[in-house]
Write a structure and sequence with these properties.
About 14% of the residues have low confidence. By secondary structure, the protein is α/β, with parallel strands linked by helices. The chain is built from 13 helices and eleven strands. Strands 1, 4, 5, 6, 7, 8, 9, 10 and 11 form a nine-stranded mixed beta sheet that branches. Strand 2 and strand 3 form a beta hairpin. Helix content is 44%, strand content 14%.
């Protein structure tokens, strides 16, 4: 039986009223500001004393403006390198209102984390995109104790979909370090960040293991990249056998951990990959990222279905022998493959 979260349901937090003045302010950022290459520098009204030296805006409006600048840079850099700076500036100018709207929603989401918790804020953000989230299998997941979720990564909403379906205050997401987390401070505190340098990997591994050994809940994206959306591209391009060794590390070294595969689908609309800008990107992985970014900025024209399906948990007893721990990661990969197979090999209409 499916557990469904509908827009406006009782479990959703009541969002604050929109502030049109701030939205317009963000949307009307000058083309020069939007195309600034100084996104990583400290702007007026910002602090530079936050973790990792990332800028941390002080006021709501300054945070919105800094987020819009960051989003503009991300959009420009996602375009194929063969296009000159003029074309990138033109694209950013064309999307200036969407960038401003995204920035305002991102800051509201960050503030809502402190008020409603990460799960509540995630449900609000999903509702704000007009998604109707369907969740299957969450009722059997432990509400306490070490829990690792290994999920596919089809877009920008998958982490929020999982966070919104698991109201655990100890929920954390393993993600790469990024300038955005210097602005979204509340979201940053719910993440275990991995630096881009190879020297940062051991430190990140120690952090995630420490969190799990302390009884925490952790979301892993073992593919390490944007995956094909099963609801759009089918399941043939997703192979859990290619997942990283992070899953094996968790199974081998965390006593009593429960590991669960999670299949997210419906994050990307069928038309997203056909967007004219996305079609300009020849690299398939970068095209998926650009398509997901464009869809997130544009928003949906009508409500759409998104789903999270949790598979059978793999529970490792404290006294489990080394052989069982070594085979647990393989079991999780196999169960994910079975979920993909049962989902169906052909795209499903939205």
């Amino acid at each position: 039986m499916a557990e469904k979260t509908f827009p406006g349901s009782g479990c959703e937090p009541v969002p604050k009223p929109d502030n049109p003045a701030l939205a317009v302010s963000a949307a009307r950022l000058s083309l020069r500001d939007m195309n600034s290459s100084d996104c990583g520098k400290v702007s007026p009204g910002l602090r530079s004393d936050c973790p990792e030296g990332q800028p941390h805006p002080v006021t709501f409006e300054a945070r919105v403006e800094e987020t819009a600048r960051w989003a503009a840079q991300e959009l420009r850099h996602a375009l194929p390198p063969r296009f000159d700076r003029w074309f990138g500036r033109f694209v950013v100018h064309a999307f200036r209102r969407q960038l401003g709207r995204f920035a305002g929603n991102a800051i509201r989401f960050d503030e809502m984390i402190a008020e409603e918790g990460f799960a509540g804020a995630s449900r609000w953000m999903i509702r704000n995109t007009k998604a109707v989230l369907e969740v299957r299998g969450a009722h059997g997941l432990p509400v306490r104790g070490p829990l690792a979720i290994a999920a596919n990564h089809p877009g920008l909403l998958d982490a929020l979909a999982i966070a919104g379906s698991l109201p655990r205050e100890d929920f954390r997401i393993v993600a790469e370090e990024h300038p955005l987390w210097g602005i979204l401070n509340q979201a940053r505190q719910r993440m275990l960040l991995i630096g881009k340098s190879p020297q940062d990997r051991p430190r990140a591994a120690r952090q995630l293991l420490r969190h799990l050994r302390g009884g925490g809940c952790l979301l892993l994206f073992p593919s390490g990249k944007i995956d094909p959306d099963p609801a759009v591209h089918g399941v043939g391009q997703t192979n859990p056998a290619d997942w990283s060794a992070s899953l094996d590390l968790v199974c081998r070294t965390v006593p009593g951990v429960t590991v669960v595969p999670a299949l997210v689908s419906g994050v990307l609309s069928p038309s997203a990959m056909s967007h004219p800008l996305a079609r300009l990107q020849p690299d398939l992985g970068k095209r998926r990222w650009l398509a997901a970014t464009l869809e997130f900025l544009n928003g949906a024209d009508a409500p759409f279905a998104m789903s999270v399906q949790y598979g059978e948990p793999c529970i490792l007893d404290n006294a489990a022998p080394a052989s069982a721990k070594a085979g647990a990661a393989l079991t999780v990969r196999r169960r994910m493959a079975e979920m993909l197979k049962s989902f169906g090999s052909s795209p499903r209409p939205r």
